[in-house]
Amino acid sequence: MLKSFLVLFSFFSLLLIGAKFPIEDTPVLSPSEEQKTFVLEKGLKIQLVASEPMVEDPVTINFDEDGRLWVVEMRGYMPDIEGNNEKNPIGRISVLEDTNGDGQMDKSTIYLDSLILPRALALIKGGILVVENQTLWQCLDLNGDLKADTKTLIDKEYAGGSAPEHSGNGLLRGLDNHYYNAKSRLRYQFVSGNWVRDSTEFRGQWGISHDDKGRLHYNYNWSQLHADLVPPNYLSRNKNHAPSSGIDHGLSTDRRVYPIRETPAVNRGYIPGTLDAQNRLLEFTAACSPLVYRESTLPRAYFGNVFVCEPTGNLVKRNIIEEKGIELLATDPHPGIEFLASTDERFRPVNLSSGPDGALYVVDMYKGIMQHVLYETPYLKEQYAKRGLDKYLNKGRIWRIVPENWQPKKVVKLSALSSLQLVAKLSSTDGWMRDMAQKLLVERGDKAIEKALIGLAKNGNSLGRLHAIWTLDGLNLIQSNLLFEVVAEKNVLVSNTVMRLLEKFAKNNPLISSKFQNILQKKSLNASIEQSLQIALSAGIFSNELKYNLLAGILDRFGSSAIIKDAVVSSLENNEFAFLKYLNKNQNWQKPNMEKEIFIEMLTSAIVKKGHPNELNTVLTLINSRPNRWQEKSYLMGLVVQSSNIPKPIKLEKMPLILASGNTKIEEYNRQKLSAMFEWPGHVPAKAVAADQIILKPEEQNMFAKGRIQYLNTCAGCHGSDGKGVPRFAPKLVGSEWVTGNETRLALIVLHGIEGAITVGGKKYDAPEILPVMPAHSTLDDATITNILTYIRNEWGNNAGPLSRFLIGRTRHTTQGRVMPWKVEDLNKHVENLKELK
Length: 838
Known about the structure:
- The protein is of the alpha+beta class.
- The chain is 34% helix and 20% strand.
- It contains 25 helices and 33 strands.
- Strands 1, 19, 20, 21, 22 and 23 form a six-stranded antiparallel beta sheet that branches. Strands 2-26-25-24 form a four-stranded antiparallel beta sheet. The protein has a four-stranded antiparallel beta sheet with strand order 3-4-5-6, with no helix packed on it.
- α6 (450-459) packs antiparallel against α7 (462-474) and α9 (492-508) packs parallel to α11 (529-538).
C-alpha cells in the first residue's frame, strides 16, 4: 500500500515540481568556471589538478611513492538514464604526472584499459590491485613503462553483488599491513609471495580510511560516519556471542547537510521533508568516501578531522573528532556552513584523498546522473531528463585544497631513497608519508634495517614507534624480547600495539605466555580504560585462572561500558560457564547492579548458544535452588530469551527439577518455554504458546534473541533491563502503547528521537521524572533497530509481533530530512496523515 502511495505521490509531485524548477539544461561549466562556484572555508583555496579529457568519470585516486596520481575512471557508469550498455569495457586506470612542477598534471599514461566498471585500486610492488566487474586482479608492470603487462586473478568473488552502490571497494592498506575493504567482510595480506584472503567484520558502503591509531572509518549513504573502536577480528572471535558495540560505531547522529543551491535531483525529492523550503537537501542521502586528514599542510585545526563527500548535495562536510575514553564523537564545527560547497549541480565529490604534499584532494566525477538505474525513482528520471542532467558525459575533475599562501614544492621520489632514509620517514608529521614509507619497507624486504627499526621502536616519537613496530612485523623481524621491553610503556598507543603482537608469541611458548600474563596482571591494576580494553582482548589467550581474574577486575572498574563487556565475552569462547561460576563466588559480584545483571545475562545467552547439556543443567539447578537471587534471575532471563532460538532441543539425562510441572519457583509460561529447549526420557519438547500469543517464525525468533542483547547494551540504561523504565531517565516499555501500537510510529521515535511530555499506560511522564529528550538512534543499522523493536514488542507480556525487515529502511527513506526529535503531537499527526494517504 505504501509503495502505491509513493508512486502516486511521485506523479503529483512531478506536476508541482515542473512549475518550480526550470526545464532547460543545467549548464556544463569549464573547470575555470566551476572553480568560481565553490565556497570554501576561509584561509584555504581550491586548485585544479586535472580535468577532462585527461580524466573522465574519476571515482577514486591514489598517489604512488613518486608523486604520480593513479586514477580509476568508471567511464561506463550510467551512460544514459536507463543505464544502457553500462557493461561496455571502456573503464580504465590512468597515471597522471606533473612534469614541470607547477602543481597541475600535464601527462597521462593509460596503465590499464578495457575494464568493466572499475571501482578501486591499491598500489603494490610492481603494479596495482584493481577491482573490476566484481573481480580482484593483480596487474603488474614488468618493464617500467607504466603500462600493465600482466593481469592475474586474485579473487573472482571479491566485490559480491553487481550493483555499484552495494559492491565491495576500498583496498585500504591498514597499519597492520592488511588491505581492508568497504561493503565487504574480506581483507587481504601479501604473505610469502601470495595474496591471502581472510574474513573480517563487515564495514560500510563506499570508501574507507584510517586514523593515526589505525582505527578504520567508513560510512553508509544515510549515515555519514562510523568507525571501529576495537582492532579488527577481536570481537568476532567467540562464535557463542554476537557483539553489539565496538565495531561499526556511529560517530554522529547529525545527518544535516547545507547545500548552497537547489538540489531537486535527489532520488526521493518528492517526499516531504527531503528538501527544505528552498528545495535544498536536508540530510545525507549519498554519504561516501570518509577521509581522516592526517597531514600538516592544512592549518592545525584540520588535523584529525574527518571529511565526508555528499555528491547529491554538491558538498563536502567537515567533522571534528573528539576522543571520549574508548569512544569517538564527531561534531560539525560550523552548523549551517559546509567545508566545501558548490552552486554547480554537476560538482560530484565522490572520493577524498591526501598525497605527498599534504594537501586534501577531491575527486569530482562532474556528472549529471548520480543514482544507479537499479534505484532510480520515476521522479528522479524525470528530473534528469527535463533538466539535461543525462547529457555531457565523460567529464571529471580532480581538485586540491591547500592554504591560501601555499605553493607547490618539488616532490621527493621515495623510490630513490635508501631503506635507512625511509626508516626516518616513519616519524614524519604526515600520515601519508608514514604509511608509504612503511609500505615500501615491507615490500622491499630489506632486513638489514632491523637495527634501525628497533632503535626507532624504542626511542622515536609515538607515531614513529608505532610504524616501526608494524614494519618489523611486516618484515617478520618482530621479536618477543623487543616487545617485552616496550609493553610496559606508558604510551597507550604503543603499549596496546605491543600487546596485540605479543599474543602470537604467547600462544606458542609457555614461558613467554607466563611472563606476558604477569606483566598484564600488574598493568591491569591501574590501567586506563583504553589499556584495559586491550588487556581484556589479549586475555583470551591466557590460562583460565588468570584470565578470569583479569577480566573480573576489568569489569569491576569499567563494566558500564558496552564495549568492555563485549571485549570480555569475546575472550571467553567456550569458557563462559566457567567464568559464570567464577563470578558466582566472587565477592565483588554479590551485590546487584544493572551492568552486572546485563553481563550475567550476556554470559548465559552465550552458554545457551554453546548448548552443552551439563552446563545448562547446572544453570537450571542453580535457578531452582536460589530462584530469588539476582544472579539466578539473570540466568533465567538469558535462558528464556534464547529458548526459541536454539536449532534443536538439547538432550538431558533426566528432567531438571525447575522444569517439573507445578514448580512454583518459576512462572508457568517460562517453565513451558524452557521445557521446549530440552528433551529427556519421557519428554517430547513442545513450543510454549500463550492463549493469544503471536507466534514468531524461526527467523523472527533469531531477531528477538539478538534484539535482547542489543537492547541491553543500547537501551537498558534508560528503560531498564526489565523494561520497567529507570527513574529520571525514561518511561516503561512494559505494556506501552508506544511499543505495541503503530510500528511506523515506533520506528520514527527510534530514528529521530522524541522530546517533551509523554503519556504511557495512562501515566504522564515529563522532566525531571524522565530526560527531556530521547536522542535519535539513527546511526544504528536497519537490522539492529529491527531486532531491538522486534524484541521489545514481544517481551514482558507485550505481544505485538515482529517488525518487517523492510520497515526501518522504508521509514528512514520516507522521512529523510527529519533532523529534530519528534514532539508527541507532531508525531501522532504525522502518523495519522500517513494512514489517510494509504
